[in-house]
Automatic annotation (TrEMBL):
Record bears the keyword Ribonucleoprotein: no
Cellular component annotations (GO), alphabetically ordered: cytosol; glutaminase complex
CDD domains linked to this entry: GATase1_PB
Organism taxonomic ancestry: Bacteria, Bacillati, Actinomycetota, Actinomycetes, Micrococcales
Active site residues of this protein: C79 (nucleophile), H174 (charge relay system), E176 (charge relay system)
Binding site for L-glutamine: G47, E48, S49, R108, I137, R138
Protein name as catalogued: Pyridoxal 5'-phosphate synthase subunit PdxT
EC nos: 4.3.3.6, 3.5.1.2
Subunit field text: In the presence of PdxS, forms a dodecamer of heterodimers. Only shows activity in the heterodimer.
Length: 194
C-alpha cells in the first residue's frame, strides 16, 4: 500500500485522509521533518496558504519539504496546496513564501472572497466521464505555465484550474470535499508507478 503523507499544520487534512483511506492507502500525518522519510507521496491540503507557510517555517518544515519536492517526491496540492507548490505567486501577501516545484505563476483568491465560492461540473480529459464536481472556495488559478506543465482542466473562460508536472499534481478546487476520488486515485497511480 502506498504511504501517503498529509501535511497536517492547518487546513482540510481530515477530508483528504478520508478519501485516501477509502482508496486503501496508508495515510500518515506529516508534522515533523523526519515524517517525510516515511512516505511515498505528500499532500498539501486546502486551507490558508500564508498560514501553512508560516507554520511550516516555525516547525522547521519549509526547507525539508522544498528539498523533498525538488528531489522528486510526488506531491498533490489542492487550493492552498496549489499555491504552496507554485514557483511564482502573482499576489502573495507580505512576506509569503511557497515551497515551489511547480513551474507556474498562480494568482491567489482569483475569484474573490468566501461568498464568491462556487461549484461546477468540470471536464477533466485525463479522468474521463463523468465531469468532476469541483468546489472552488477562495480558489486560485494558474495564470502562466512553464513548458513542462500540462494543463489538466480549464473553466469555460479558459482559466486553468488543474495541472500536472511530472510527479506534481495540483488542483485549484477541492475534490476531497465533494465525494470525488478520481484525482486522489490518479495521485496513487503516480506513487505506485515509482
Ligand atoms: N485563498 C486561500 C489561500 O490563499 C486558499 C483557499 C482554500 O484552500 N480553499 O491560501
Amino acid at each position: 500500500r502506498p504511504r501517503v503523507g498529509i501535511l497536517a499544520l492547518q487546513g482540510d487534512v481530515r477530508e483528504h485522509a478520508r478519501v485516501f483511506a477509502e482508496l486503501d492507502a496508508d495515510v500518515r500525518l506529516v508534522r515533523r521533518p523526519e515524517d517525510l522519510s516515511l512516505i511515498d507521496g505528500l499532500v498539501l491540503p486546502g486551507g490558508e496558504s500564508s498560514v501553512i507557510d508560516k507554520l511550516a517555517r516555525a516547525f522547521g518544515m519549509r526547507e525539508p519539504i522544498r528539498e523533498a519536492i525538488a528531489g522528486g517526491l510526488p506531491v498533490y496540492g489542492t487550493c492552498a496546496g496549489m499555491i504552496l507548490l507554485a514557483d511564482r505567486l502573482e499576489n502573495p501577501i507580505a512576506g509569503q513564501q511557497t515551497f515551489g516545484g511547480l513551474d507556474a505563476t498562480v494568482r491567489r483568491n482569483a475569484f474573490g472572497g468566501q461568498v464568491e465560492s462556487f461549484e461546477v461540473a468540470l471536464e477533466v480529459p485525463v479522468l474521463g466521464a463523468p465531469p468532476v464536481h469541483a468546489a472552488f472556495i477562495r480558489a486560485p488559478v494558474v495564470v502562466d505555465c512553464g513548458a513542462g506543465v500540462e494543463p489538466l482542466a480549464a473553466l469555460a473562460d479558459g482559466r486553468v484550474v488543474a495541472v500536472r508536472q511530472g510527479a506534481i499534481l495540483a488542483t485549484a478546487f477541492h475534490p476531497e470535499v465533494s465525494g470525488e476520488t478520481r484525482f486522489h486515485a490518479l495521485f496513487l497511480r503516480t506513487l505506485r508507478a515509482r
